[in-house]
Amino acid sequence: MQNPGVFAATNAAAPFYTPDTSSPVVSVNENTETSFNFTWQASSKDKFNVYYSNANWKKPNALAGPFRTFIIAPEASINRVFSVNTTQISWVRPATNRLLFEAGSSFAPGVAKDLPNANAALDVYSLFEIATRTIHRNSHFLAQGTGYTSNRATNSFYGSASYVTGTHNLKIGFNGSTFQEMIPDNFSQQNYTDAVAIMGLPLQAGFTIPNLSDNQGIAWGFYAQDQMTFDRLTVNAGLRFDHLGNSYPDQTRAASVWEPAGLTVQGNDSVVNWNDLNPRLGVVYDVTGNGKTALKASFNRYGTRSNSEWAVLLNPASSTPLRQSARVWLDGAAGHPFAGIPAVFPGCIPSTSDPTGSSCIAGDGLVQGDPTNPAPNGELIFPASNLAWGSSAQVQFVDPNWASGWGNRFSNWEMTAGIQQELASNVSVEATIYRRAFVNHFATDDRSLSGSDFDYATIDLSGRGIPGVGTVTIPEIKPDAIRVPDVLFTGADQFGGETQTYNGVDFTTNVRLDNLLLQGGLSTGTISNNFCGLYDTVPEDLRRRGQALVATYTTTAREFCSTSTPWLTQFKLLANYTMPGDVQIAATLQSASGPERRADITISLAEVAAALGRPSATGIAPQINALAPGSDYGERFNQFDLRFTKIFSMDSTRLRAMFDIYNVFNANAVTSEIYATGPSYLSVSGFMPPRLLRFAIQADF
């Protein structure tokens, strides 16, 4: 199918992306799968099942079009090939009419290859154009090179024993998963270099050391649960022990352009080593004793799901600070008005190898300068802001008191209370109050810095013409504070703490009459966040909130360190009516809030300098969402669908003829927008699918 509004460039190598409206891009998702399923009744009670499948996907234009707050031109999209082999083995044994044993495992190794798009311009740097928030030319911004291979394997296992009586439903068991992410291959036809431009003028060059790494994780747990009945009270009680560990083995990375000596890493078998006891408790009380009125409550704790991301973060072979660097690059041009740099600033810094600076050729599209030299040189006119880049020394660590032991993992306490009432036979309503409190947030403490190493810039952005945007305050590092980082990930409670809570209410109804089924409900809730305590103690943590796709840095305004969303409401209703002659009419109605809006503004270096009374120490323009989170939402989403079904019965065969109408009223609410400020701000990047008619026949025999 065609990607709406996505077109190939008229010239893929041009400094601007200009769409060729005669060359629409087709979204291809080629999927082939071969499977095998075998069941063996080994004995009167033992049953084994083996399932195997081989699946392959090809997506030559993966990610082309709107993506988050960016536009990815087709030439910069990824030609992705992915395959996975899945093997599942299970065993079931009903030992008695009360005792059941179950066990199984699955193995799912997968290989992904990301290659350049067929139309990519591989002889020039990949460009990110700030003015239009467009990535074009080729896929270096996404793949950090021309292409790479990634091997990922997820293996899982489980086992349980259930004992069911009239008053108890007891179950004990275990389950878990292992994860491995290995990137054995990464190559580049542009020396692992990409660039940022504004209005077509080069502003910044990015340099990457290949991510050739091996990282592993394991998560497993034991649990016991029982359902007990005491007169009118039913209790569901359980306790789960969870363990999460991350590690990486000894590994060696071959030499590359920015790392001529390669890298040898000593393994770490305990990057994180968390243990948790998570209780589960639910109670139901029959108020009247006739089953018509029930009070319900629950109290549960859930640990965050995780795989190997902490190993990826801390392994020197995959650590981002050691692999990625950004330098201000003006392509030899003296001055750069869009960067806010005075025209008197030189376009080329003389070096010992070129004291005259004559090697810098203005406008040739090539970076003259040595990024391994942290001092200004050639066309790299600012000192390096990341002194860890290219180092073999580890610069990111975890606090052992936080990254191991009991109860330290990021978790969620969920509490509910509700009432269910039967209004008539087969007609009931229910109301439930929810509260979720997230605990054990982490903070990023660069121990080479302190709060006094930052100034705070207050900048008025109301002149950008965006309603709701006003003054923002952001931290800016001082010139003499740029050092080799010494980052410690630890609990946020050491620095003033962080809170995140959800409060909500659900209303549901369930109607089951002779020919009518009606189910649905309304849900409304609000989310509150507060991390103001971190602002003055670890301002470097705020600079890491969010992930910048380009080497601006993403920060959070001090004004938005404490926010709450309005009460957002969604509604869903399903109805099914059976008419004479085995004709069924089904309808669904759903309504939800539109997308939360942002205003992603890149603050110019001139604005930073004016607010600080001095130039930026790094030359990296900060990026910020200048709209208070939860303050503005897009168009509400409303959709109504219909299905008509006629059932034909023929001996042992039932034939269903179905006619579906999706989006009956052809609503076209916007589901995603561009939030990068500029000419494309609030441009539509996604909308509801149009009215769709579908015919289908299903045979059951």
Explain what you see.
The protein is mainly β. The chain contains 5 helices and 42 strands. The strands form 8 sheets. It has a 21-stranded mixed beta sheet that branches. A 7-stranded mixed beta sheet has the order 5-6-10-9-13-14-21. The chain starts with a strand and ends with a strand.
Q: Please work out how many helical segments DSSP would assign.
A: 5
The average pLDDT is 88
How would you describe the shape?
Answer: globular
Radius of gyration (CA) equals 29 Å
Task: Please describe the biggest sheet, giving its number of strands, its sense, and whether it closes into a barrel.
Answer: 21 strands, mixed
Helix fraction? under 10%
Strand content is: over 45%
Number of strands: 42
Keywords for this entry:
mainly beta; 21-stranded mixed sheet; globular
